[in-house]
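quick one before i forget lol
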Amino acid sequence: MENQDLKIAQQAKMKDIGDIAKKLNLKEEHIERYGNYKAKIKLEAQDHIKDKNGKVILVTAITPTPAGEGKSTTTVGLGQAFSKIGKDAIVALREPSFGPVMGVKGGAAGGGHSQVVPMEDINLHFTGDIHAITTATNAISALIDNHMHQGNDLNIDPRRISWKRALDMNDRALRQVTVGLGGVGNSIPREDGFNITVASEIMAVLCLASDLQDLKTRIRRIVIANTYDRKPVTVGDLGAEGAITLILRDAIKPNLVQTLENTPALVHGGPFANIAHGCNSIIATNMARKLSEYVITEAGFGADLGAEKFFNIKSRQAGFDPSAVVIVATIRALKMHGGVKKDNLKEENVEALEAGVANLEKHIETLQAFNVPYVVAINHFVHDTDAEVKALSQWLEDNNHPYSVSKVWEKGGEGAVDLANQVLDQIENNTATFTRLYENEDSLEDKITKIATTVYGAKTVNFSKKAKNQLKKFKREGWDKLQVCMAKTQMSLSDDPKLYGRPRDFELTVRELNPSIGAGFIVALTGEMMTMPGLPKRPAAMDMDIDDKGNAKGLF
């Protein structure tokens, strides 16, 4: 199936990116071409286009498993389906991180007949946005070390530098490093470390900024260290916000591409949802709202992570409410949540499926807590049996959950026409008022507790001694009114990745809090979450190659 994804993408009949721009009423002078099939949209284009105030449809999922859920594929297929039924629609996705592409996932541009293209470009270097974010992050590190080497006028304590370098690659050897070795001329020796670029605050800031000036303001606020007397030091104190914004002047512009069926797509920004906020950029989403009547976007991992952060962080900061949510579930994944091993998923097992449905049920309850209309998309796989599809469909009907069997991998937009109509029906008949889980005025402790108990299903929340001290400090600094970005395993509703299904009566432990003041949130770290992943025993990169004509192999 995976090799078919690449083959299908390579056989795509793409339109010139200028023609895609015309679909959106963008003129040639509004775009900056990167070849024939991808372009950046200039920010000033927003001043010349009619605001359609498009409705935002979020695609989320159940708790992910190694069996796969197909969230990106569903997002692309649903966008194509909207186009197929004559609706003015645009797809808005994140850019794939190079680390997971080389590591486990292999690619993140959808699959089958529901992909964004040019797939090879998108999964590799694309337009260089993530490279620019990496450079901006490391430029701050270089300026910090140089500042201390040149006399340290800001009184930075080298033991309390919180800013880390970045690399868009899974590399566990860089989690903790020592820099400045080799003598006086090589700066001050100190402990340091690397985050994967998509977990960096520069990535979060770029994705949450509303325009270039807001980006600069946010960068100025970023806390990079503390002084010897425990006072925060910012990028603004370093005097570097101008240079860092300059590095990002092209990266902030949304990227325009297309789906296999030539539906316009904006692919921009790529924060992880387990250690960052997991959504594409506000600039891209708001631009899409100006350009189309319906915006189909996604948020990373399950509804407990990406959707929660989309509701409480992204849409709040962006100034819109979502109109509907699609929650993707696969029978394969639900059977794993019901106790089936990955090697046995091809075997029919209705009993395990019915046990695993508890995970889907919890995610639906989360969406209901936000008063947002939803549709369950059963992402159909070839080995799903009629009995299994019937059992899941029956459960959904018995519990009054709107649903549709989606076949977007196999049939593209045609495979999601019913899903699109179901979503439209939910939007048109919705009378509920969207409600966020917490107010900015709530304490950090209350915000974290509301997320843990309402979204995860935790019984209580424990704060480590370090986290308690940080809560006090953050309140003194005036940071307690910021939003919360939970760093939690994506593999479970709890903070234990081994607990599949629907864990109950568990305690969630917050071990540390990190201020992301530029992004406008506080990161709460739970469990053993790491901001620099490692590669698996056999990385996806080992199966990749290139032929003598320059075509990719094994990239899917």
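fyi The mean pLDDT is 95.
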